[in-house]
Amino acid sequence: MSKAQLIEIARKDLEHGRNDTLDLADGVYKVPIENYYDPVRWEAEKKQIFRRLPLTLAATAELREPGDYKAMEAAGVQVIITRTRSGEAKAFVNMCSHRGARLLENGRGTAHKFTCPYHAWTYSTDGDLVAIYAAEDFGDIDKSCYGLRELPLLEKAGLIWVTLDADSNLDINDFLSGYDDMLAQFGFEGWHAYHQQTVEGPNWKVAYDGYLDYYHLPILHRQTFGAEMGNRANYYSWGPHTHLGRPDTFFEEYADKPAEEWPTPALLGGVWTIFPHISIATFAGGGRSVMLSQLFPGDTPETSYTNQLFLMESLPETEEQKAEAQQQFEFLKYVVQEEDYATGIALQKNLDVGARDHLLFGRNEAGGQRFHKWVDTLLETSDEDLPKLFKTG
């Protein structure tokens, strides 16, 4: 069924390409400039969006074997994601139950227990407190009450979603709105995590606006790759999640062929965004690969940072293939850092000087319009009503 949806999208894009048209929003949309720098709103976004919604914090490829873990910070919350002895993925606050110390430094590794560097309390990969240092001197406590604080987690389509609110009543499956069925077509479960790098950027929404925008490609990226790209996108949405398609004639040769002859890798081309902070950009050179960009608010409203995780269907084997992959990583970091984010950082400086009171999203920028409407809606939605936003049927 999901491939059928991909073909339906491709046929729609093909028809637009034949007619030189595209889907357009109803009108031009205005976003108040202070939305990009107001500290009160920024704190609300962290609380109401990043700490309430499931975030894509890892790929299955990063935690392949029992004992594998990933420690990271997300929107100010320190998190451990681990593969338990049974093979299940679990997530915990990276915090010792004794005095709150961080158990693991940020990064990936393998361990079959977690020992606090402060007082050596020890936890299993299931989060159970299994040993207290100098227990005979500490005093009696019920260890079953002092395991690690577990966070809601769902592993699906080769990706791992974690909700930073341990008491969340939002079902992660509902939040995905069926989008995971589309992402499952990649087959990420069998891919490899090959490289990661981090890029500093402007306000998280300034950065995310760019991921939802083909309009700028032949202009901003004209010296790198944009001269070959069109400036038009069609937007396909599942709940708050959006895929950017291209209204062109790329699939003309498949138009009269049966579904099984339409190539799935080509159908998955383009950009897949996962609200509120993920962009998956596809590449074919040097073997199938994607750049999964993981965007987080920074230390101030005007800043953000993006973890670029490169997933590859097949690992490069020869020195030539490894060099080609490394060249691609460096090129993409340059494009994002020196073109997208450098533009965004300079843009950010203009926002609070009072020259304008709003920014514009055109009829051809429906993805950005939809994104900002979802942000506004979530800021106005109570914890009680949050699950209702994602209920279907």
Primary descriptors:
five-stranded antiparallel beta sheet; 393 residues; Naphthalene 1,2-dioxygenase Alpha Subunit, Chain A, domain 1; 27% strand; 2 domains; 20 strands; Rieske Iron-sulfur Protein; alpha+beta
Structural class by SSE content: alpha+beta
**Poorly predicted spans:** none
Rg over CA atoms: 22 Å
CATH architecture call of the largest domain: Alpha-Beta Complex
CATH superfamily of the largest domain: Naphthalene 1,2-dioxygenase Alpha Subunit, Chain A, domain 1
The coarse overall form would be globular
CATH class of the largest domain: Alpha Beta
Query: What is the tally of beta strands?
Result: 20
What would you say about this model in short?
With 393 residues, the chain is an alpha+beta fold.
Helix-strand layout with pairing:
Blueprint: H1 2-19, E1 29-32, H2 39-50, E2 54-59, E3 68-74, E4 77-83, E5 89-93, E6 107-110, E7 113-115, E8 122-124, E9 129-131, H3 135-138, E10 150-151, E11 153-156, E12 159-163, H4 172-176, H5 179-183, E13 192-201, H6 204-211, H7 217-220, E14 234-238, E15 241-245, H8 264-267, E16 271-274, E17 278-283, E18 289-297, E19 304-312, H9 319-351, E20 358-361, H10 366-379
What report would you give on this structure?
This protein has 2 domains: 2-53 and 170-390, Alpha-Beta Complex (Naphthalene 1,2-dioxygenase Alpha Subunit, Chain A, domain 1); 54-169, 3-layer Sandwich (Rieske Iron-sulfur Protein). The protein is 27% helix and 27% strand. It has helices at residues 2-19, 39-50, 135-138, 172-176, 179-183, 204-211, 217-220, 264-267, 319-351, 366-379; strands at residues 29-32, 54-59, 68-74, 77-83, 89-93, 107-110, 113-115, 122-124, 129-131, 150-151, 153-156, 159-163, 192-201, 234-238, 241-245, 271-274, 278-283, 289-297, 304-312, 358-361. The strands form 5 sheets. It has a 7-stranded antiparallel β-sheet with strand order 13-19-18-17-16-15-14. It has a 5-stranded antiparallel β-sheet with strand order 6-3-4-5-10, with no helix packed on it. The protein is globular, with a radius of gyration of 22 Å. The two termini are 18 Å apart. The mean pLDDT is 95.
